[in-house]
Amino acid sequence: MPIALLALAVGAFAIGATEFSMMGILPTVARDLQVTVPQAGYLVSAYAIGVVIGGPLVAVGSRRLARKYLLLVLMTVFTIGNVGAAVSPNYGFLMAARVVTAVPHGAFFGVGSVVAAKLVGDQQSGRAIAVMFSGLTIANIVGVPAATALGNGCGWQLAFAAIAGVGVLAIIAIAILVPNNDDFAAPPMRTELHAFAKLEVWLSLGVGTLGFAGVFATYTYIGPTLESLTGVGPVGLSVAIALFGLGLAIGNLIGGRLADRALLPANYIALGSLAVALALFALAVHNRLTAFVTLSALGFAAGLVIPSAQMWTVRAAGDAPTLAAAATQSGFNIANAGGAALGGAVIGAGLGYTGLSLLGAVLALAGLGLALASARLSR
């Protein structure tokens, strides 16, 4: 695989760390800013909304910019947003900083997916995209647990400062390793927009959105869930998050190979596995060992979804993949915002933390049903 994929993976690592670390430090942020846990959960939703809005807008508005330089601009804005989060004096400022940080997210993964695929060709595009996303999944093994431990032990502001430092490293790596290649040029805007006239594009976006809504309904509140039902402390929480990340990393790499081999079956396997893992987590969460094992399985299933969902949308879009790939990230983060909001509603209704993963299982099954229906319609 080309070394340029390493630079994309470093950027993905930074983005993954900032997106998912909020889940681990959510109780600490809530206590420090004197808000409730569901209110602190809106910081997750705010990030997701920033991705949803920013991804397509940036992809459309930056078409004349060379792909390499666009990646550099996106990582610079991302880094500035994390610096803002690190110096946030109150809830409102932190909310705004999270939105700024989120705006480049969708476009980075959208443009990065296209660049990764162009670097290797069609036969290995799924694996190349998985290598880029491995940065995000490795962030869940190393970056997020480290940020969780740092944020809970020394102050959540330091967690965001550390992530800003990784953002600087990503800028340097992209500048040095990613070629400025004409093959990365985006197609005409009319071609990009025409992709959204295809029903298969919308259905593929819906499948990924429903599947990951189930993940985020559960994982957004993983800190208070494990604290309340399993009795873990800060160290145990960091271990649990690392196990989720390990499963996510392995699932992502295997999912990339499955997507290259048989794309639609890869989606069915991923979504079915996700529904099973979420349902099992509701049963296993009261025991520390079984909770950790099923949380790792949940990460594995979620990892399977990432490359297959991204590849499905890119292939459905045909010759106009950039905007569609960015829209996939918007879909994932509609899932992020919607899953977090639905999870907050479940908690607020008094249904308990086990209700979160049961809701997630239902959403994953809905995604599987939509995938099967989409396959029938596209024949």
Automatic annotation (TrEMBL):
Keywords: Cell membrane, Membrane, Transmembrane, Transmembrane helix. Its main location: membrane. Pfam families: MFS_1. GO terms for cellular component: plasma membrane. Residues 4-379 form the Major facilitator superfamily (MFS) profile domain. It is found in: Cell membrane. It is a multi-pass membrane protein. GO terms for molecular function: transmembrane transporter activity. InterPro entries: MFS, MFS_dom, MFS_Efflux_Transporters, MFS_trans_sf. Coiled coil: none annotated. It comes from the Bacteria. The chain crosses the membrane at residues 42-62, 69-87, 93-117, 129-150, 156-178, 199-222, 234-254, 266-285, 291-313, 334-352, 358-377. PANTHER family: CHLORAMPHENICOL EFFLUX PUMP RV0191, PURINE EFFLUX PUMP PBUE. This is DHA1 family inner membrane transport protein. It comes from Kribbella kalugense.
